[in-house]
Amino acid sequence: MNQDANALPKAVILVSGGLDSATVLAMAHAQGFECYTLSFDYGQRHRAELIAAERISAGYPDVTHKVVTLNLDSIGGSALTDTAIAVPESPTEGIPITYVPARNTIFLSIALGWAEVLGALDIFIGVNAVDYSGYPDCRPEFISAYESLANVATKAGVEGNHLRIQAPLSNLSKAEIIQQGSQLGVDYSATVSCYQADNQGRACGLCDSCRLRKEGFESAGVADPTRYKLA
């Protein structure tokens, strides 16, 4: 995996359209990476996030954006992919029904393949293990294990090009994420975090993702630009 010594290092950035991934893109861009953003049309009910992901990526004229279609709704098992399962509007015990089985494992696998094609050694993902919904594939041990896998499962890794899975938000609170993103100029009004946003991207204000987002802005002392359906 040879790169021009004068070229910017390339990175694939997983961009969902939400607050966290928008911040991660801003971080990677500020670090001088040539950024390639990757989103997934995976059968999610909150499809407004795809429009947001494209909008966020388009805010950087030098960023290339790609959308890959996956039909995770065909296996179901999550309130985010099965409209017959209601999105919880109050906190629940254990891993919530909004967990999409193996989602980040699948997303990172596609990102890893694209990274090899591009000659990129870095993949950025906006997982967080402080203010989050309790998904198992958002924990630091998952990221560490996946990086180990990436380096034994790829041509790049076998040839000695160490691949890095970067999760810079892992140990930050939602307020700290918002503060750092604000310093980098992230336009959070362009992001969609709600699990059941309408077609205009307006948030329900009730689901777990909305609650974490709202509390984050309040704790950060930053005005919440979210558009709510109930407002």
TrEMBL record:
Which pathway does this chain act in? Purine metabolism; 7-cyano-7-deazaguanine biosynthesis
Cofactor comment in the record? Answer: Binds 1 zinc ion per subunit.
- Residues involved in Zn(2+) binding: C194, C204, C207, C210
Q: Where are the transmembrane segments?
A: none
Q: Needs which cofactor?
A: Zn(2+)
Q: What is its EC number?
A: 6.3.4.20
Residues at which ATP binds: V15, S16, G17, G18, L19, D20, S21, A22, T23, V24, L25
One Pfam family linked to the record = QueC
What's its top-level EC category? Answer: ligase
Q: Known catalysed reaction(s)? A: 7-carboxy-7-carbaguanine + NH4(+) + 2 ATP = 7-cyano-7-carbaguanine + 2 AMP + 2 diphosphate + 2 H(+)
Provide a GO biological process annotation: tRNA queuosine(34) biosynthetic process
HAMAP family assigned to the protein according to its UniProt record, in alphabetical order: QueC
- What job does this protein perform? Catalyzes the ATP-dependent conversion of 7-carboxy-7-deazaguanine (CDG) to 7-cyano-7-deazaguanine (preQ(0)).
NCBIfam families linked to this entry: 7-cyano-7-deazaguanine synthase QueC (TIGR00364)
* Name recorded for this polypeptide: 7-cyano-7-deazaguanine synthase
Recite the lineage of the species. Bacteria, Pseudomonadati, Pseudomonadota, Gammaproteobacteria, Cellvibrionales
